[in-house]
Amino acid sequence: DCARILLADVEANGAYYGVVCNAGIAKDNAFPALSGEEWDSVIRTNLDGFYNLLHPLIMPMVRRRKPGRIVTIASVSGLVGNRGQTNYSAAKAGIIGATKALALELAKREITVNCIAPGLIATDMIGDEIIEEALKMIPLRRVGQPEEVAALCSF
Length: 155
Description:
By secondary structure, the chain is mainly alpha-helical. It has a single domain (2-117), classed as Rossmann fold, CATH 3.40.50.720. It is built from 6 helices and 3 strands. It has helices at residues 2-13, 36-64, 77-80, 86-106, 128-134, 146-153; strands at residues 18-21, 68-73, 111-116. The protein has a 3-stranded parallel sheet with strand order 1-2-3, sandwiched between helices. α1 (2-13) packs parallel to α2. The protein is globular.
């Protein structure tokens, strides 16, 4: 149980200063062929991951009475959509909206909540055929690296 583990860590080590919420999977398929399992697993992993990670940690962060940082990872797919990624685009758009709402709730507590929406990043989630096609649309003609996204999280 995620909440139990996180709260035990808070009890042992104190409330977190910062949290990076980076849960996500993609199961690409054209919408007419998209199975209920493909829809549910992507939505659950992305949106439930946001809730399951952040919900138990918010009140301990607030009770610290000190500034804090939360960074969520979405995707450019949540901003513009991608063919074959209706489920993923919907989930990442949800992360963007939830991040904005949580930022408004926590601003008065000096806890910032920001979202990073990267384009194509070299991870196990993308295959070579996707990279080859996507490079045609990327001005730098290269995919991003995970370390580049990590550097953004450490502002």
